């Protein structure tokens, strides 16, 4: 049973436009959320995170939004660049799980020039 | 500083053979994690160690899987005997402490024929 769900396996966006990657979770105890980015033939790398005490965290072109009531978070990339083409993993953690992240299946983002 | 090192990068073997995957964590990191990535299940945590001690191996799929960490700079994941359904990418990750950001290695792509 997937506790972290990324229901869109892929997303295609034009360069310069906004990319929005979505993630839903079922465990209401999750209180820390992360996004990882993965290029082919490489391991995932940490991108951005958000604590449940916030509803938004921004880092340059990347912003993560958290809607606790809906158990939903999203990653916005503005503007999208071809170098952003990668697989994005959403992950969530909580104290009862020793804050070890539970990952979703990933969304493959393709940014077209 | 070198990141997490995994070997081999690719492994092709026949069903029934023993497979050993290796990982060298980042120096100074006290926690080490083994993950498996498949299309169907995404990134699954198999086992993790803290200070070389296995803490939770509940993600190990079967007794055919075993992992060791004989010292702070080396860990192995062994599959014996291997089966075609074990084909996946196996990642090793390390972190300063259990709840800290994980740094992933490049992965080992395992194919069992």
List the main descriptive attributes of the protein structure presented here:
heterodimer, A: 113 residues, mainly beta, 6-stranded mixed beta sheet, 5-stranded antiparallel beta sheet, 0% helix, 53% strand, B: 113 residues, 7-stranded mixed beta sheet, 4-stranded antiparallel beta sheet, 11 strands
Using a beta-carbon cutoff below 8 angstroms, give the protein chain pair with the largest interface and the number of residues from each chain: A-B, 20 and 23 residues
Molecular shape of chain B = globular
Please, how many helices of chain A?
0
Structural class of chain B: mainly beta
Order of helices and strands of chain B: EEEEEEEEEEE
Give a verbal description of the structure:
- With 113 residues, chain A is mainly beta.
- Chain A is 0% helix and 53% strand.
- In chain A, the strands form two sheets. In chain A, strands 2, 4, 5, 9, 10 and 11 form a six-stranded mixed beta sheet that branches. A five-stranded antiparallel beta sheet of chain A has the order 1-3-8-7-6, with no helix packed on it.
- In chain A, strand 9 and strand 10 (102-103) form a beta hairpin.
- Chain A is globular, with a radius of gyration of 13 Å.
- In chain B, a hairpin with a 2-residue loop joins strand 7 (65-71) and strand 8.
- In chain B, strands 2, 4, 5, 6, 9, 10 and 11 form a seven-stranded mixed beta sheet that branches.
- The model of chain B has no long low-confidence stretch (mean pLDDT 95).
- With 113 residues, chain B is mainly β.
- The A-B interface holds A 2, 6, 36, 41-46, 89, 93, 98-106 and B 4, 33, 35, 39, 41-45, 48, 55-56, 91, 93, 98-99, 101-107.
């Amino acid at each position: 049973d997937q506790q972290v769900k990324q229901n869109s396996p892929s997303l295609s966006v034009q360069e310069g436009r906004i990319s929005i990657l979505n993630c839903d979770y079922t465990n209401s105890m999750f209180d820390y959320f992360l996004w990882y980015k993965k290029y082919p033939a490489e391991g995932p790398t940490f991108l951005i995170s958000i604590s449940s005490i916030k509803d938004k965290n921004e880092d340059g072109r990347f912003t993560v939004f958290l809607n606790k009531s809906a158990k939903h978070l999203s990653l916005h990339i503005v503007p999208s660049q071809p170098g952003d083409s990668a697989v994005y993993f959403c992950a969530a953690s909580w104290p009862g799980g020793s804050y070890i992240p539970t990952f979703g299946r990933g969304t493959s983002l393709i940014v077209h020039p | 500083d070198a990141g997490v090192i995994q070997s081999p990068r690719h492994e092709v073997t026949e069903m029934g053979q023993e497979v050993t995957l290796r990982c060298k964590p980042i120096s100074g990191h006290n926690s080490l994690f083994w993950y498996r990535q498949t299309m169907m299940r995404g990134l699954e945590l198999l086992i993790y160690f803290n200070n070389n001690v296995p803490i939770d191996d509940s993600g190990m799929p079967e007794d055919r899987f075993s992992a060791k960490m004989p010292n702070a700079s080396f860990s192995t994941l062994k599959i014996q005997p291997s089966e075609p359904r074990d084909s996946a990418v196996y990642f090793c990750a390390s972190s300063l402490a259990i709840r800290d950001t994980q740094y992933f290695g490049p992965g080992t792509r395992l194919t069992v024929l």
